[in-house]
Amino acid sequence: MNMPVRDDAIEVTIIGAGIVGICCALSLQERGARVTVLDKAGPAEATSYGNAGVISPWSCIPQSLPGLWRNVPGWLLDPKGPISVRWRDVPSFLPWVMRFFQAGSTIEKVARLADAMDALNRPNMDIYRRHLRGTGHENLLQDSWYLHVYRDAHGASLSAIGQRLRIERGAPVQIVPGDELREIEPAISPVFQSAVVIRDQSRAVQPSALGKALADKARSMGTFFKSCEVTEIRQKPGHRWQIICDREYRETGNLVIAAGPWSMKLLKPLGISLPLASERGYHLEFHNPGVTLKHSIMDAERKFAASSMQNGIRSAGTAEFARLDAPANYSRARMLESMTKELLPDLNTGDTSEWMGTRPSFPDSLPCICELPGQRNLFAAFGHSHYGLGMAPKTGQIIADLVMRTPTNIDISAYHADRFKKHGQSQ
Ligand SMILES: Cc1cc2nc3c(=O)[nH]c(=O)nc-3n(C[C@H](O)[C@H](O)[C@H](O)COP(=O)(O)OP(=O)(O)OC[C@H]3O[C@@H](n4cnc5c(N)ncnc54)[C@H](O)[C@@H]3O)c2cc1C
């Protein structure tokens, strides 16, 4: 599959081989660019390794919604609640929290964010399938539904704001009672009495394997992957960029920052300041689980997702606000054991493994995908928060358009870094 690269091919370096950087590499490679990807770990070894695997065209619900703030104190006080904070890090998060609540303060704001999320997520299954074609790993992506399950028979509702946003954008959503829920997924406990079923989506049965298969495809098309840690980037004359990577100096015509939660470490020295928070999440994987799931399941009250992966059942979720370099708190992963057992009573919990990853989160649930203001040939592709697996393929296409200086086929103003300067807000 190695494609001939023209001598005058546009030269691009991508920092970060998470799912976002990998999808950028594939789309740039398809357009004939000469692509290098630098990563301190390896393809899909960081946040893109252990996520819940949900790939939904219908992920268009921002995290911040009107009235959400009322739930926050209860969630924080509950040791098994979906949110936790590292209290000593709270002062550094407060400005972000203010912006978060502002972002979702009215229905109008939330509807605009939902449109922007929808545009990034809608084509994700089609683009993934195209990228996977011919790799021999097509089965890493499986058609599936999303079942949001509730203990109360009347808990599932289509009038809740999140479901309304989905339905308004064409999502195939319906309510099913408990007995029908168990016909769809027999392993789910009778404790759960109703569900919202979202059809026509997919799931990765091993997100890390999906990332690695796509990285291999990019490699086979000519992308050069190098393992190294970038410590600094500098602008050079002629709008070129210098990268200092394991004490080596490299130069490139175009530089894409796809370093997930670490992106601001590279950009701050250039005077760029954006409200990117590290929102950690955990998974607990049950090996030899004794039960299987056909779909992605969300416990709508506990707010974690469970699904069958190649290595067993994975339960993933929780939002923990802590400094990027703070030590992991694996009790957040272990609490998923009793919660998953409540969901799946026949689950074998004897053999488990834990994982922590860091979502790169902006307050409005949208990523930054743009050429950075005042920094010609320097592009942002980070901040995909809870939806990076779903949003990565379209992000890759947009980055390819920006680098190749071709028009994008959607309005991308909502993803611009400048949005945080609007309305007199300082950075
Ligand atoms: C518990 C959990 C569940 C989730 N579930 C889902 C889900 O079901 N669906 C969904 O769509 N999203 C989900 N997400 C979110 C999704 O995983 C992320 O949005 C996505 O993985 C971010 O990808 P990324 O490529 O931006 O970052 P990463 O995967 O973190 O990649 C960034 C890469 O940059 C490299 N890097 C950083 N700094 C440097 C440097 N200085 N030099 C060299 N390399 C560097 C890192 O090594 C890393 O490989 C979940 C997240 C979590 C935590």
How are helices and strands ordered from N to C? EHEEHEHHHEHEHEHEEEEEHEEEEHEEEH
Mean pLDDT rating = 95
Task: Give the terminus-to-terminus CA distance.
Answer: 45 Å
Question: Which molecules other than protein and nucleic acid are bound?
Answer: flavin-adenine dinucleotide
Parts with pLDDT < 50 across at least 5 consecutive residues:
none
Coarse morphology: globular
Radius of gyration: 21 Å
**Helix content estimate:** 25-40%
Strand percentage? 25-35%
The total beta strand count reads 19
What count of helical segments does DSSP give?
11
List the helices and strands and how they pair.
Layout: E1 11-15, H1 19-30, E2 34-39, E3 54-55, H2 72-77, E4 83-85, H3 90-103, H4 107-121, H5 124-132, E5 141-150, H6 161-168, E6 173-177, H7 178-184, E7 194-204, H8 207-221, E8 224-227, E9 230-236, E10 240-245, E11 248-252, E12 254-257, H9 263-267, E13 277-286, E14 296-299, E15 304-309, E16 312-321, H10 331-343, E17 352-361, E18 368-371, E19 378-382, H11 388-404
Parallel strand pairs: 1-2, 1-12, 2-8, 4-16, 5-14, 12-19
Antiparallel strand pairs: 3-7, 5-7, 6-7, 9-10, 10-11, 13-16, 13-17, 14-15, 15-16, 18-19
Bound molecules: flavin-adenine dinucleotide.
